[in-house]
Write a structure and sequence with these properties.
The complex is a heterotrimer of chains A (279), B (337) and C (324).
Chain A: H1 2-12, H2 14-36, H3 69-105, H4 107-122, H5 125-136, H6 140-151, H7 153-166, H8 170-177, H9 182-218, H10 229-236, H11 245-272, H12 274-278
Helix pairs in contact in A: 1-11, 2-3, 2-11, 3-4, 3-6, 3-7, 3-9, 4-7, 5-6, 6-9, 7-9, 8-9, 9-10, 9-11, 10-11
Chain B: H1 2-40, H2 45-52, H3 58-68, H4 74-86, E1 92-93, E2 98-99, H5 100-135, H6 140-154, H7 157-171, H8 193-231, H9 234-241, H10 246-284, H11 289-298, H12 302-330
Antiparallel strand pairs in B: 1-2
Chain C: E1 3-16, E2 19-32, E3 36-40, H1 47-55, E4 63-72, E5 75-76, H2 82-86, E6 93-96, H3 100-103, H4 110-121, H5 126-139, H6 145-148, H7 158-170, E7 176-180, H8 188-205, E8 208-213, H9 216-222, E9 225-230, E10 233-239, H10 240-245, H11 250-257, E11 315-316, H12 319-323
Parallel strand pairs in C: 3-8, 3-9, 6-7, 7-8
Antiparallel strand pairs in C: 1-2, 1-4, 4-5, 9-10, 10-11
Classes of the chains: A mainly alpha (279), B mainly alpha (337), C alpha/beta (324).
Chain lengths: 279, 337, 324
């Protein structure tokens, strides 16, 4: 019942609904990419620099080498979405762990956790990601972990705040008096109550991670085996005088995806805090 | 005036002192992370470096060994590393053929110029748009502002930069494609006099827009909701009861209070602004730290990369302290323990 | 005595998602110069909205004035353009609020906030306004006034903040002062000081005062006349002595019964009025007080009782009072 009310509130937000639908479509396209475009998207299929609409076989045109842009976009969706999701998962895992421990135990544990959050906010994030990637190698795993490492601080702060407000509630004290261990209370009792706002934040981190990854790939430091959207923008950069659409199209794809993820995040936020909406 | 004024100045000094003390462990943390990264590098750091920089002269290798103290135990290496950094000794860059610190400092002003102009643009646009949207809440203008903010918040800055190059530089020819000065032009430096400064400003417009509009979008959203929130507070009703017009109330009472969350976010984002300029510099061939970083990353010139990270963090810490002082100036309720 | 403020049939409606609510329904009252009229009722009965309606300071949306007149020294404020009202608010009508700490701008000094009201209604220069601000602070009994001028509100106590609010409200010698629960948020001793201050200021300047409160103890001390409101309507009006001696409306009687009487020997347990003020969007067809009334009759549930005049200077809207 409560869940339906939540969904209802979410669906009443038109922007969030549109965002959710678009993301579902993008996800569907990403999953079914091998079905519609079964062959290697990076293979040369036609004349180079065909404008969108110029040849009905290549709806979005071809790039400087004669590769089908639509096929690359569709396959790129897989890479982009997966990296975004996994990086957000890494950030959430780190952030929730550190935030939960800091908020629950307080004292010097909290102090150390918050100081390290500050530390990671101080190091210019993209520079850090580039440094990690260049030192440890441009693999998908390294990129995902690096983005996760620079994105966890807001999640940790929010988790900490939730834990701080929940740790002294009656139900937690009841558990403690029944002899339940700290780990059990943290994971079993407080975490489920603290999670909803954290999930909202995680959805926004997905959007941020996609922007991060696209910047890394754009700079040519992405995984060379993966054609994410950012890399497509970077590849098209040399030809902006003659064929700017090669750059424009993947950028639009990034923008729409990030926009829709943000809309979903806003919608989730409003649905969680119905009070704020009535104003 | 005197009593309250001087006590606030004292408080500002106290804040400054506390922030400086806090900066020490923060910088230490940055250095340790740096050190860990070096040691995580697959293969010998020295081998990688010498191979990448085509150094084969045994004397140079010996010098490098000594510089990095690679035979020492790890803890001693760390101590030596910290000691070296305390003297701004980040090593030597063979690519630029100068000490790393010199190479970075040579490029830093251009980056700071870009950062400052982008933040200024973001604040001006964001605050103005947020105020307009909040005063015309739920009207056509509010919608326009919100939609625009949504788009600029989602557009990758590098892509926005390229699209602006296509439109304003390639198609319309109004603005230069990139660089910081016209090649073969009269100056392109402060030494070039007024013309040179104008030339730099001309080159600064597009990179500033590309980097700043993303933050402008954030500030617009924050400012709008903050204005609406503050407008509900009791003291705004008092101001209206005093007979002030809506505009007077907005400017003298709502605005300053509503700015506080914007300033908070500004402080948190200093690091990302610096990082964002790296990408924008690459798009516009802006001769700043970002270009140096990109070049060093491509050539695996680790000392420069690490040096940029340390100095970048230092810039962020400094900027954060400045933002804290601004916040304190805006909000007299901040008391120092 | 000349009427300083005369309110006739003032009606304010809240337009919300859950429907229209009549927050103030045909309120009439008048205050003469030098007189204090108390507006009394439980929270949620429309007292504060009435005050804001008089000033035309309602948050619109959702609240809008739908009818009535508010005459200040004979001029009706309701049809006036907003710019004309700016010259009345803060100059001819001053207002102070319930929570003085949050009613002052936290990022502006005391001097700035007082000077602002002076500068917007007079042609005083900056220095003159500052000097006048200091005078005003001394007038309202601010301890150590010269030093407080440059303080920020968070450094002041609640009582001191309320003194600043009063200083701002009387800065331009208004003919009417509206005080909306000015002592509710303050400590008991401070309450007494603020009440005494308001009385003294009124005696000196002869301004009319509308005093909004839910505390009948305060009413007994300050008011000349009392208007009792319930669910947006005036249900009784009387001189203060008459009201306390012979309350006619059962609601008034209930309020008096629920008030501790100072000096009385350990007052027997305060009689509470059972139940709560009905929600404005769910008012019964008859008398809004019927469900809580000890003297309820069948008629009360069908018709809304109108105001009648059982004696000179008294008004009451109650069928039970009429038949008694």
């Amino acid at each position: 019942m409560q869940r339906f009310a939540f969904l209802g509130r979410f669906a009443r937000n038109r922007g969030a609904l549109v965002g959710a639908v678009v993301i579902l479509v993008v996800a569907f396209v990403a999953v079914t990419a091998p079905f519609f475009f079964p062959r290697d998207p990076l293979r040369i299929v036609g004349q180079p620099e065909l404008w969108p609409g110029e040849d009905p076989d290549f709806l979005l045109g071809t790039d400087s080498l004669g590769r089908d842009i639509l096929a690359m976009i569709v396959h790129g969706a897989r890479a982009t979405l997966l990296i975004g999701l996994f990086a957000s998962a890494v950030a959430t895992l780190i952030g929730v762990t550190i935030g939960a421990i800091a908020g629950y135990f307080g004292g010097w544990t909290d102090e150390i956790a918050m100081r390290s959050a500050e530390l990671f906010q101080t190091i210019p994030n993209l520079i850090f990601v580039l440094t990690i990637v260049v030192i440890l190698g441009s693999t998908l795993t390294n990129i995902v972990i690096a983005i996760g490492i620079v994105s966890w601080t807001p999640i940790a702060r929010m988790t900490r705040a939730e834990f701080l407000s929940l740790r002294d509630r009656e139900f937690v004290q009841a558990c403690r008096s029944m002899g339940m261990g700290n780990a059990g209370i943290i994971v079993g009792e407080i975490l489920p109550n603290a999670l909803p706002p954290v999930i909202v934040l995680s959805s926004l981190v997905v959007a941020g991670a996609i922007l991060f990854e696209s910047a890394v790939s754009f700079l040519g430091l992405g995984d060379p085996n993966v054609a994410s959207w950012g890399r497509l923008v970077g590849d098209g950069r040399q030809l902006i005088r003659s064929s700017w659409y090669i750059c424009a199209i993947p950028g639009v794809a990034i923008m729409i995806t990030v926009l829709c993820l943000n809309l979903i995040g806003d919608g989730l936020n409003d649905a969680l805090n119905p009070k704020l909406r009535d104003r | 005036m005197t009593g309250a004024g001087s006590s606030r100045r004292m408080a500002a000094l106290k804040l400054l002192r506390r922030r400086l003390i806090q900066a020490v462990p923060l910088m230490l943390g940055v250095v340790v992370i740096n050190f860990v990264l070096i040691h995580l590098a697959p293969g010998s750091f020295l081998e990688l470096m010498t191979a990448e920089n085509q150094v084969s002269d045994p004397a140079t290798i010996a010098l490098l060994r000594k510089t990095y103290g690679l035979e020492d135990p790890t803890w001693l290496q760390l101590l030596k590393y910290i000691w070296a950094l305390l003297h701004f000794d980040f090593g030597f860059s063979y690519r630029q053929n100068m000490p790393v610190i010199d190479a970075i400092l040579l490029n830093l002003p251009a980056t700071i110029l870009l950062m400052v102009s982008s933040i200024a643009l973001a604040l001006a646009v964001g605050v103005a748009a947020g105020v307009v949207a909040s005063m015309k809440v739920r009207t056509f203008w509010d919608t326009i502002v919100s939609v625009a903010a949504m788009f600029f918040f989602a557009a990758p800055s590098f892509w926005l930069g390229i699209m602006m190059i296509v439109l304003f530089a390639v198609k319309l020819g109004w603005l230069p494609v990139g660089g910081m000065a016209t090649i073969g032009g009269t100056g392109g430096s402060i030494a070039g006099g007024a013309g040179g400064i104008l030339d730099i400003l001309h080159h600064l417009i597009l990179p500033t827009l590309a980097l700043g509009l993303f933050y402008a979008a954030i500030y617009t959203r924050v400012m709008r909701s903050s204005m609406l929130e503050v407008a509900q507070l009791d003291f705004v009703r008092t101001a209206r009861a005093k007979g002030l017009s809506r505009n007077q109330v907005t400017v003298h009472h709502v605005l300053r209070n509503a700015l506080l969350p914007v300033v908070t976010i500004l402080g948190v984002q200093m690091g990302t602004v610096l990082a964002g300029s790296v990408v924008i510099e690459s798009v516009f061939s802006w001769p700043g730290v970002g270009s140096l970083l990109f070049d060093s990353v491509s050539s695996r010139n680790y000392p420069v990369v690490l040096g940029i990270m340390v100095l970048g963090s230092l810039v962020v810490i400094t900027a954060n302290i400045a933002v804290d002082l601004v916040y304190m100036w805006l909000d007299p309720r901040i008391e120092i323990r | 005595m000349a009427l300083a403020l005369e309110v006739k049939g003032l009606s304010t409606t809240l337009f919300t998602r859950r429907g229209e609510m009549k927050a103030v329904d045909g309120l009439s009252l008048s205050v003469a110069a030098g007189e204090t009229v108390a507006l009394v009722g439980e929270s949620g009965c429309g007292k504060s909205l009435s005050a804001l309606s008089i000033m035309r300071l309602l948050p619109d949306p959702p609240a809008r004035i739908v009818g009535g007149e508010v005459r200040l020294n004979g001029r009706d404020l309701m049809p006036m353009p907003e710019e004309a009202l700016l010259d009345i608010r803060g100059k001819e009508i001053g207002m102070i609020f319930q929570d003085p700490m949050s009613s002052l701008n936290p990022v502006a000094t005391v001097a700035t906030q007082i000077v602002e009201v002076l500068r917007s209604h007079t042609d005083m220069g900056r220095a003159a306004a500052r000097a006048r601000a200091l005078e005003l602070l001394e007038l309202v009994g601010m301890p150590d006034a010269p030093r407080r001028l440059d303080e920020y509100p968070h450094r002041l106590s609640g009582g001191m903040c309320q003194r600043v609010m009063i200083a701002m409200a009387i800065a331009c010698n208004p003919s009417v002062l509206i005080a909306d629960e000015p002592t509710t948020a303050l400590d008991v001793t401070v309450q007494a000081q603020v009440l005494a201050l308001l009385k003294k200021l009124q005696a000196d300047s002869g301004m009319a005062m509308i005093f909004i409160t839910h505390d009948l103890g305060v009413v007994a001390e300050t008011a000349d006349r009392v208007v009792v409101m319930y669910a947006g309507r005036k249900v009784e009006e009387a001189g203060v002595d008459a009201l306390f001696e012979t309350p006619l409306h059962p609601y008034t009687a209930g309020l008096i019964g629920a008030t501790p009487i100072p000096g009385a020997e350990r007052a027997a347990r305060l009689a509470d009025i059972p139940g709560m003020v009905p929600a404005l969007n769910a008012l019964p067809p008859g008398c809004a007080f019927a469900d809580r009334c000890p003297k309820v009759m069948d008629r009360c549930r069908q018709e809304i009782p109108l105001l009648t005049q059982p004696a000179l200077g008294r008004l009451v809207a109650c069928f039970a009072a009429e038949t008694a």
